[in-house]
Design goal:
This protein is an all-alpha fold. It has eight helices and no strands. It is elongated.
């Protein structure tokens, strides 16, 4: 007799397959590189046939696009929601958003995805453009808008919001590189949340009116 939990697992499996495929793709992109990874390799890693994977994704770029949209898109939506709903001084909001970013860097595979994007963008410009449009192009304006609101309210000095936003998020890139490139080589593990907290404290003192 078939166990009810086994039946439930089977019925849920098709819905779980896209996530399993994306996890397998990220594994292989990080291990072998984008160019060296074949769709059949991803299918095998995900436990699918060569043909079955094409029911979910048409090619490698669609896999990478889904990874960017899945991992970055959700985070950006959360950050944008924080900014839109927040009322009051902007300093606590900047701290809240940056600490959210730090938590995502520590607890998700986003640093691995970022490493793939940077390492492959020169040989495959479409990959860089994908990240530029879907992540940088959507993420930086969130910080720029917060800074403009703080400047308008007299909370922040009259700094260039576009430049200041880049300075705000740049340490998070170092945190991602440290985790994926340096820690595997023996570097001391980085406490990303503590690093982010210290950075935002220094930054806010620098822009304070």
């Amino acid at each position: 007799m078939t166990d009810r939990s086994e039946i439930n697992l089977r019925s849920r499996r098709p819905a779980a397959r896209p996530a399993e495929i994306l996890a397998a793709a990220l594994d292989l992109f990080a291990e072998k590189g984008y160019a060296a990874t074949r769709m059949e390799d991803v299918a095998s890693r995900a436990g699918l046939s060569k043909a079955a994977i094409y029911l979910y994704f048409k090619d490698k770029m669609s896999l990478l696009t889904a990874l960017v949209q899945d991992m970055a898109g959700g985070n950006l939506a959360v950050a944008a929601g924080m900014a839109q709903q927040f009322e009051g001084p902007m300093s606590p909001l900047l701290r809240q958003v940056l600490m959210f970013m730090a938590g995502q860097l520590r607890t998700t595979r986003f640093p691995e995805l970022l490493k793939v994007i940077i390492s492959e963008s020169r040989a495959h410009p479409d990959i860089g453009k994908l990240y530029l449009e879907n992540v940088i192009g959507r993420g930086l304006p969130i910080f720029e808008d917060i800074l403009r609101r703080g400047i308008k309210a007299g909370e922040f000095r009259d700094v260039d919001p576009a430049l200041a936003a880049k300075a705000m998020v740049a340490p998070m890139l170092l945190a991602a590189f440290w985790k994926t490139a340096f820690e595997p080589l023996g570097a001391e593990p980085l406490d990303i949340e503590a690093y982010a907290a210290q950075h935002v404290d220094i930054f806010l003192k620098g822009v304070a009116a």
